């Protein structure tokens, strides 16, 4: 175990990577639903001086929980790869339709977070893939508690879909960095041994995310 470091150390490491998508260093944050991806990505974005975060929950739909690749590629990845701003419309889960268009500029670092951020079609565009190392049942339990009984049926369908997705297209074996939540915040393991947990860990002590 190395001495405690702040999340800024990971931010500096990511910002120093070569661009992976045109001028952009695209960083994937994947993990099970409820594993804390959004909270972690938000804090990492702050450490990256406000790097934009694309949430895959805004790209997926009720009918396309994981079949959103074509839309993401055409609306976001292709423009960024060409150094142009991406124009895309986030999905409204309440209204069940796409909302007003948003613009995503080709910033030096862009985070893409959500279940499937490390899918095989997206990995060639990533400068680094981070995996939230939280057990599936723990993650799903958090998600169900967060969303309440009224979304119980949705979660039943989601769990089946997530199982099928990761069975066919796993992300964790390809992760460059495993991120764990601890009592002091975060610990992460990076390098060639990340998937097996053999590299050294460092700790981020800004507090434990709630979801």
Verbal overview:
The chain is built from five helices and eleven strands. It is of the alpha/beta class. It has helices spanning 7-15, 37-47, 69-81, 136-147, 152-168; strands spanning 25-30, 53-55, 86-88, 91-92, 97-98, 102-104, 109-113, 128-132, 177-182, 185-190, 201-204. It starts with 6 loop residues before the first helix and ends in a 7-residue tail after the last strand. The strands form three sheets. It has a seven-stranded mixed sheet, covered by helices on one side. The protein has a two-stranded antiparallel sheet with strand order 3-6. The chain has one domain (7-204): 3-Layer(aba) Sandwich (Rossmann fold).
Summarize the structure.
With 211 residues, the protein is of the alpha/beta class.
């Amino acid at each position: 175990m190395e001495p405690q470091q702040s999340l800024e150390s990971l931010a500096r490491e990511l910002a120093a990577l070569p661009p992976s998508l045109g001028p952009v260093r695209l960083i994937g944050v994947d993990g099970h639903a409820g594993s804390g991806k959004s909270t972690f990505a938000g804090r990492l974005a702050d450490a990256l001086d406000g790097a934009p975060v694309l949430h895959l929950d805004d790209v997926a739909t009720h009918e396309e929980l994981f079949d959103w690749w074509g839309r993401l590629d055409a609306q976001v990845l292709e423009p960024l790869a060409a150094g142009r701003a991406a124009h895309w419309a986030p999905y409204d889960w309440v209204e069940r339709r796409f909302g007003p268009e948003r613009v995503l500029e080709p910033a030096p670092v862009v985070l893409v977070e959500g279940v499937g951020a490390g899918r095989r079609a997206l990995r060639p565009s990533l400068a680094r893939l981070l995996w939230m190392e939280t057990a599936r049942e723990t993650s799903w339990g958090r998600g169900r508690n967060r969303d309440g009984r009224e979304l119980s049926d949705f979660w039943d369908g989601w769990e089946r879909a997530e199982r099928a997705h990761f069975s066919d297209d796993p992300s964790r074996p390809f992760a460059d960095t495993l991120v764990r939540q601890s009592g002091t915040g975060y610990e992460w393991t990076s390098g060639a041994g990340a998937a097996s947990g053999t590299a050294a860990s460092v700790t981020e002590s800004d507090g434990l995310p709630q979801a």
